[in-house]
Input
Amino acid sequence: MSVTTHLSRRRKPAVLRPSLSGQKAPVPHSHRSRRRHPWIFVLPAVAMFSVFFLAPTLLTFFYPFTNWSAFHSNIDVVGLKSFRSILHDGSLRNALQATLIYAFVVAVCQNLFGLGLALLLEEDTWLNRALRTVFFLPVLLSALAVGYVFRAFLTPDGALNHALSTISGAHVTFAWLGSTTWTLVVVALIHSWKWMGLSMLIYLAGLKAVPPELLEAARTDGAGRWRTFQAVKFPLLAPAVTFNVTLALIGTLNSFDIVQATTGGGPAEATQIFNVYMFRVFGEGLYAQAAAMSLVLFLVVTALAIPVIMFLRRRELSL
Amino acid sequence: MTALAPRARRRRTRRGPRAAFAVLLAAVVIGIPAWLVAATIGKSSADAQSPNLHPPKQWHAAANLHTAFNQGQMARGLLNTVLVVVPSVILVLILAAMAAWIFARRAGRLTAVVYAVSISGIVLPPTVITMVLELRKMGLADTRVGLICAYTGIYLSFAIFFMTGFIKGLPIELEEAAGIDGAGPMRVFWSIVFPLLRPVIATAAIMVTLFAWNDIFYAFFVLGGGGDATLPLNLYQVANAQLYQNNWNLIFAFISIMSLPLVALFMLGQRRIISGITSGAVK
Output
């Protein structure tokens, strides 16, 4: 454990302050070191990454401005037509709203569930270790599969209504996945359920790194459970919070499977997040519109995820 | 040790109700969905139409698993998945390890910039629409090779990031000693650095397998619904085919067969996965 802890201390800042990472390394014989670590080793990775990640990203700044579709044989530049159409039919606003609400609810719930589980299963007993494995299992399942399981659970003649009918004696046919307001939250809760085991593991690791002397000191000062959590454990969990929120944001902004499996974007497009929209429109052959949405998603992630990560990092330092 | 003694004693008094609550929570939160799947797999198609928590009147589990496996074309799906996931994982690991070694050992502004660009894929969303266009132009759309290239591009950043951090924590002296003995960079990398990367390679391999095995979004765009469809694509087709709509017994049978390899993989590498996931978060 101490080895990994030590490593991660160096590893984490590297992503946020990459310009420092290179300079930190000791370079006693820089000339010889350079010859011993030739650039050619980087080349294959950079080539694959450039061709299959960076190039499509750059192309996304071009193709939305064309009439690329399944219905034209050639591709011409047509300006802002695609953006105008996703703006006017309301799909851009709708996707943006659905995705942001979804991301927010998941970021909050996944962290609350994960933190709650971590605190509950913190002690290292055999039972807790077994239960941690149980709560981690959904992480391993395909998100599509999880979506289908919950669809079977939540459809009007599904398991939940059936159970409620049995308990209440009345015939319950509530459409859990049929509300234009609440279904998005229901699906976000399913997403949180699938990933809470991962958050739990990360919080458990964070709790393990809390120095026992501090907990002892808090106890000597007469702090109760809640006070100890609030004043000692939680501030020290800041890096774990950063990591978890980042994971949740990246995961939800690029989410597709759970929504597609449970609602397919419905009812009335209420859960049509970016990727579900792109999938549908691409299937209709409207490639340029799908690419336009893809560009918007790219800009949203860059504008949202990066500042959030920076903010959380700064908060960590000030705590 | 003496300092910890009062803590342990205090905890023990509370352990009973706490443990009972944890077990109850697991039974409700994980147990109920798991039971729904297990019970439904056991039912006949007529009983599975409206899923509920009743136990099946008669267990049809074997027949359902058999039908799902055959009609869902799982053997072919499994083969396609393996033929895509295994090369992707190997490619990601080898390319990332080579690059990470240089990023970890070289200093200077250029290294920092190339490293930052290489790991940008962790945060930036893959732009799959234009990736499909590019793959079409390269003649790789609708092929397994195309999907392997897509996965490699998407997951490289993640692997480079993890491995660079790991290599920075390794002592450089071994490499230097080998260098003094006249070994070239190729020798040094393959016979000294790469073997030392075993723990991080195991973690990264399992993580990339987890992503790629369960992926449907990128597989959809790159492969479409052709004969090369992977398991999740098959599942989607099975679940959406008119013939199978609401045949939850077959859908769940498919899901359980598809999930089995990953659960087995996790059970085998549990410790490694957990330490790998968490090492990035603790400080």
